[in-house]
Amino acid sequence: MFDAVLIANRGEIAIRIARACHELGVRSVAVYSEIDRDAPHVRAADEAHLLGPTPAAQSYLAIDRILAVAAEAGVDAIHPGYGFLAENAGFARAVAEAGLTFVGPPPDAIERMGDKLSARAVALAADVPVVPGTEEPTGEAEEAIRFGEEHGYPVAVKAMFGGGGRGMKVVHSSAEMRDALEAAAREAEAAFGRGECYLERYLERPRHVEIQVLADLDGTVIHLGERDCSLQRRHQKLVEEAPAPGIDPQLRTAMGQAAIRVAREMGYTNAGTCEFLLEPPAEPGGDASFYFLEMNTRLQVEHPVTELVTGIDLAQEQLRIASGEGMGYRQEDVELSGHAIEVRINAEEPAAGFVPTPGPIGTLTPPLGPWVRFDTGAESGYTVPRDYDSMIAKLIVWGADRDAARARMRRALDELVLDGIPTTVPFHRLAMRHEQFAAGEHSTASVEREWDLSELTPQAPAQAAEETPAPSRRVTVEVAGRRLEVTVFGELAAASNGGATARRTRRAGSGSRAVTVATEDLVAPMQGTVVKYAVAAGDAVAAGDTVVVLEAMKMENTIAAHRDGVVGELPYGPGDVVESGTVLARIEDA
Q1: Nearest 5 degrees, angle CA 435-CA 437-CA 440?
Q2: What does the CA dihedral 223, 291, 438, 305 come to, rounded to 10 degrees?
Q3: Residue 495 burial (CB count, 10 A)
Q4: Dihedral (CA of 83, 86, 91, 94) sign
Q5: Sign of CA dihedral 283, 285, 289, 295
Q6: How far apart are CA 217 and CA 214, in angstroms?
Q7: What is the largest CA-CA distance in the chain?
Q8: How far is it, in rounded angstroms, from Cα 164 to Cα 342?
Q9: pLDDT, tens digit, for every residue of 185-234?
Q10: Alpha-carbon span 305 to 341, nearest angstrom
Q11: How far apart are CA 233 and CA 465, in angstroms?
Q12: Which domains does the chain possess?
């Protein structure tokens, strides 16, 4: 086993890996950007080092800086977590060239699966069906329109690199194709550094079912059953569960064997996940069809549900496999027990189309009780930055069966205290009680096209409140880029806070998030960065027409006209940062 591991990530996944290291007796090294100086993940590790400024390109994506820290800290291996550099073959190669172990698959496997077109070719070579799509990158609208005419709409425009729903747009007509191609390429470039896209036939109402695999250096490849991840918004998962409801043993075996064939075809090692789209039978009593979608060459956000139903610690298995110990499991050792459900708690307002809501958390008190797990990189008083992903935490429960797990999740959600900013918690309370979800009849289209979310009311932001002066203060200092904490007292404590003698906390307020503006004003529903205006001053628009595109928390959001009229002055330009409630444009009477 390794002596020390650097965790090249942040938030809850960095804490998850640090815990796995601690239990294995491995020294853990955290890294952080300037805005994450006081984030919980830097305290969870045995030591922490500054990477650089807040932008990910200058910190969590800065390969040279990460390798320099690894050398300074004297680690044996680097665990990438998920997101950022987790599926970057160049990073994996650079780690190996530095004489360190990359806790993940070989670079060639990452490369073949990171390119979705290459991944489709691997699946076909392994005799696994794929959704009909293009075989080359597509950047020309005319070519994409011809594909739509041949295969029918809707069509999915998808980023060739990366995942998590970023760089994916669904096109319902030829008129939408050009804008969708441009938006998908921009989003993919921003998230993954590569903007190439391809096309697939978009399945209208599939289920998203995935298979977790483990493969060690000795050639043993096993699967750990399936997860259902069909409850989504913007093609990003909200709720995951294991096992998938309604999957019979024959279908589970067929999908598991397909995932193993894909892993063997590409010489895969470590943990990975094959994602499939499951299309319902054309006729009652018929067989469902499954199609290979992609393979995530990393640990996934939803790995805890698999851990709870199998009893296998995936993070520790990753470390064991990477160190050469092997995993010690055969397929016949894997048994599924009970049912697990995970909900992603994001800084988003579900009552307003899941718009991002970064900002300061007031009180965060996780639920307790048997078979309840709460993975988070936040805490009371923590500010969720706008610069990274919107996920705050994951709440996971286990029950003897699916109904028991739903009941436990309902109780846990009711017990959870998380105020200060709007989150997805109200949506999850609704989902756990929804008749369609209870029956296991939901699909990837359910949330955005079938469910009535009108009963969700906007959540109130926090109001500031003064506290009594603190007698002491913890101060973060950096020595040669390494983070250390010291305690200062009395006047020195006040001086370390710029002369302030009191600290501020947050508490839940009342009222709505609505901003009082003139009827003509189109306001930003969230803090974000202007990507572009889709109109010019003087243009006539109808209610629902796109006026401006904002990027917030790594996702593009189209802001539509709220009324018919003529566009007035446009006060901002690409790259400008605007706050929630900012007037983006005036739409005056024609």
Answers
A1: 110
A2: 30
A3: 12
A4: positive
A5: positive
A6: 10
A7: 77
A8: 16
A9: 888 887 777 888 889 888 888 999 999 999 999 999 999 999 999 999 98
A10: 6
A11: 35
A12: 4-80 (3.40.50.20), 133-201 (3.30.1490.20), 207-450 (3.30.470.20), 468-502 (no CATH), 521-588 (2.40.50.100)
Q: Tokens in use for 160?
A: 């060739």
Between CA 247 and CA 209 the distance in angstroms is: 10
Q: Is the dihedral of CA 477, 482, 483, 485 positive or negative?
A: negative
Give backbone dihedrals phi and psi of 56, rounded to 5 degrees, phi first: -60, -35
> In sequence order, which residues have a C-beta less than 8 Å from that of residue 118 and are 6 or more positions away?
111, 112
Helices (H), 25-86: 40-44, 63-73
Q: Which amino acid, one-letter code, is at 108?
A: D
DSSP-derived secondary structure for 568-588: ------TT-EE-TT-EEEEEE
Helix (H) or strand (E) holding 321: helix 314-323
From the list 296, 299, 304, the residue with the least C-alpha distance to 343 is 304
Spatial contact of 190 and 551, defined as CB atoms under 8 Å apart: yes
In order, the DSSP letters of 376-392 are ES--TT-EE-TTS-SEE
Type of residue at 143: E
Beta bridge partners, 242, equal: 340
DSSP string, 451-475: ---TTPPPPPPEEEEE-PPPSEEEE
Tens-place pLDDT, residues 362-375: 999 999 999 999 99
Q: In what order do the strands lie in the sheet with 583-588?
A: 521-523, 583-588, 565-567, 540-541
- Kindly tell me the number of DSSP H helices and DSSP E strands found in the chain: 15, 34
Q: Which residue has the tokens 């894909």?
A: 262
Which tokens hold the place of 276? 């499939």
Q: What are phi and psi of 23, to 5 degrees?
A: -70, -25
Token output for 421? 């900013």
Token couple for 111: 């490369």
Measured distance CA(1)–CA(101) in Å, rounded = 11
Read off the pTM: 0.82
CB-based contact 79:6 (threshold 8 Å): yes
The rounded distance, in Å, linking the Cα atoms of 557 and 529 is 10
Render pLDDT for 294-314 as a digit per residue (tens, 0 to 9): 899 999 999 999 999 999 999
